[in-house]
Specification:
The complex is a heterodimer of chains A (about 140) and B (about 450). In chain A, about 60% of the residues lie in helices and about 0% in strands. With about 140 residues, chain A is an all-alpha fold. Chain A starts with 13 loop residues before the first helix and ends in a 13-residue tail after the last helix. In chain B, strands 1, 2, 8, 9, 10, 11, 20 and 21 form an eight-stranded mixed beta sheet that branches. A four-stranded antiparallel beta sheet of chain B has the order 14-15-12-18. In chain B, strands 3-4-19 form a three-stranded mixed beta sheet, with no helix packed on it. In chain B, helix 1 packs parallel to helix 7 and helix 5 crosses helix 13. The two termini of chain B are about 15 Å apart. Classes of the chains: A mainly alpha (about 140), B alpha/beta (about 450). Chains A and B meet through helix 3, helix 6 and helix 7 of A and helix 2, helix 10 and helix 11 of B.
Chain lengths: ~140, ~450
């Protein structure tokens, strides 16, 4: 299991990874069944997403994670609570908050829920029958 | 020099490339995404999202209220869609005829032969009732209780081996059985056998239009390159076509470029039940609403679900609340309200040369949404749901318009013969030519229009 201190990325610095884990722990804080985002080690797969996003989106994301890395966890929690209630906010602030929310949720939750223990806890298992197909 | 270059390889590009190649034309098909096979499609939701879609998984409207999914892979949207085959009804055709300035073939009788030809060329079927999963049974039971009509969905698929436990949700990332009738395994495959040249990982950046040829400039597997043809057919969808035409300087001569964008915005609602629903198992979309009242109101109710990543992004809340909700993943039934939205969206290029998607619901759209969501609440309540959760994030999966077809060059981009107004060597026949949202799955009609466009292009 890799935390931000142990993980590496071709795109994010250790500080930016720390920012991702901090916001990740607000989204997925962990309980007796599910570990927190940072403890899950799923941050180590971040390049599987970042390899495919545009350079501009990547730069925006890096800047955001850098900012998150410096914010105290309590302040980040307040900030995220505000951002998460942005459904009907108007104009520039509302747009920015919603874009930020879906962007961050997309990264964190894609990493957390695409494999591993979380799927086991939810009971998610799928398959396609292929035994009749030729190699 | 090629006779035709087709840009984009989804249900339109694949069909046009096949029909033109079959008629003896020398064709080149270009696709920005990678070429995969049934054996090499990404295996996880994370890799599917980042490798098979534009924007690394998701593109957003400038307000952030709508997310858009757009396939970036050889086979385009037909690799990642649900392969639904729905014909348009008179309501949709009459609206198009009115908006387009009276295009003659916008009616059921004229388009019937094209639908029939497509239907004969691919495998298609409905899901047998014994294979309806519990989510579908909840859906049909609720609609029956409320006196609303429903029907099985007709899907372009072969043998999915549902009786052997296949879970259709896997095929949203590419079908490992080659059962789903994507353009990759139908039209593109057939056309290749007849001599079609295909270049994947070729992102088209710009067009240079000439009186007897068109030059396509792009980046192929990392290297700047170009290709030349007598004619070019754009099949890159609403976003791809509009962006390319803007970048190539066509906006000055096409005042309607980027306008009339619509997307059938979809709003998902989850309902928690005491018993497992397992909405992700088996044939997870086998039915849909088919009700005159709902149709007249401009909404359609669908019965889809998504993988854990998709559901987690849609699920409201964060922290402990979100985790508790996600642990109940197998206990949710789901219904989706899809709106027949007004075509008032607009596609533009920003000062940084990036596509900007301006798309907000009108007050009329919001009325439809409220009617639909209230109906979904009532439907779930009627079958004993314990809790109903509305998602805040809406999605557009059917990206339509931006290059509307019509008779007037001031209010449309494409003429009834499918060439761009004033540019006879440039043609379009995919969903970007839609004058408005039909409120019906567009895939079958895109194929039919593309077949008709191929006939028109072959005449000249």
């Amino acid at each position: 299991m890799n935390t931000s201190n142990e993980s590496s990325s071709r795109h994010l610095s250790p500080r930016q990874l720390k920012g991702l884990c901090k916001i990740g722990d607000i989204l997925v804080c962990g309980d007796e069944h599910l570990v927190s985002f940072s403890k899950s080690g799923q941050v180590s797969h971040i390049d599987r997403i970042l390899d495919y996003i545009s350079p501009q989106d990547l730069n925006d994301f890096k800047l955001l994670m850098w900012v998150f890395s410096w914010l105290p966890q309590s302040l980040l929690l307040v900030l995220w609570t505000v951002i998460d209630s942005s459904n009907q906010w108007p104009r520039w602030f509302g747009s920015t908050a919603r874009l930020l929310r879906i962007g961050v949720k997309g990264m964190v939750l894609s990493l957390y829920y695409f494999e591993g223990k979380s799927l086991e806890v939810m009971g998610y298992q799928v398959s396609v029958y292929t035994a009749d197909l030729k190699e | 020099m090629f006779d035709f270059i087709v840009v984009g390889s989804g249900v339109s590009g694949g069909r046009i490339a096949f029909e033109l190649t079959k008629r003896g034309a020398k064709c080149l098909l270009l696709e920005a995404g990678r070429a995969y096979t049934a054996h090499t499609f990404p295996k996880t939701e994370l890799d599917t999202s980042s490798q098979l879609f534009w924007g690394g998984g998701l593109e957003l409207s400038n307000s952030g209220k709508l997310g858009f999914l757009r396939g970036k892979v050889l086979g385009g949207g037909s690799i990642v869609n649900q392969a639904l085959l729905n014909k348009f009804d008179d309501l949709a055709w009459d609206d198009w005829k009115s908006r387009s300035g009276g295009v003659e073939y916008f009616n059921s009788d004229s388009m019937r032969p094209y639908y029939e030809t497509i239907e004969k060329s691919i495998k298609a079927s409905v899901i047998p009732v014994p294979h309806y999963n519990k989510n579908a049974l909840i859906f049909t039971k609720a609609l029956n209780k409320m006196g609303l009509g429903w029907e099985p969905v007709y899907r372009a698929q072969g043998d999915c081996k549902l009786d052997q436990g296949t879970d259709c949700i896997v095929c949203l990332g590419g079908c490992p059985r080659n059962s789903k009738q994507s353009s990759l395994i139908t039209t593109i495959k057939w056309a290749r056998e007849l001599g079609l040249e295909v270049r994947s990982e070729f992102q088209v950046m710009r067009l240079d239009y000439g009186t007897d040829h068109v030059t396509v400039h792009g980046v192929h597997q990392g290297e700047a390159t170009q290709a030349v043809a007598k004619k070019v057919v754009l099949a890159g969808g609403a976003f791809g076509n509009a962006e390319l035409l803007f970048r190539s300087g066509f906006a000055a001569k096409l005042p309607a470029l980027g306008k009339a964008f619509s997307c059938h915005p979809q709003f998902m609602t989850f309902a928690f039940f005491n018993e497992p629903v397992n909405a992700h198992k088996g044939a997870f979309q086998s039915v849909e609403s088919a009700d005159k009242t709902l149709r007249a109101k401009g909404i359609k109710l669908e019965n889809v679900y998504a993988g854990p990543v998709g559901i987690s992004i849609l699920m409201p809340g964060f922290g402990k609340l979100h985790q508790e909700r996600m642990k109940r993943y197998c206990y949710y039934g789901s219904m989706e309200v899809a709106i027949r939205d007004e075509p008032v969206g607009e596609l533009k290029l920003s000062s940084k040369n990036r596509l900007v998607i301006q798309k907000n619901l009108t007050s009329y759209d919001k009325q439809k949404l409220k009617f639909g969501q209230d109906k979904v609440n009532a439907l779930f309540s009627s079958v004993g749901a314990q809790e109903v959760i509305r998602c805040h994030q809406a999605f557009g999966l059917h990206l339509m318009g931006g290059c509307a077809l019509g008779t007037n060059a001031k209010t449309s981009v494409v003429s009834p013969d499918f060439t761009v107004h004033g540019f006879p060597n440039l043609a379009i026949a995919d969903s970007s030519v839609f004058p408005s949202a039909p409120g019906i799955n567009p895939s079958f009609t895109i194929m039919a229009l593309s077949l008709k466009a191929s006939e028109e292009l072959s005449k000249r």
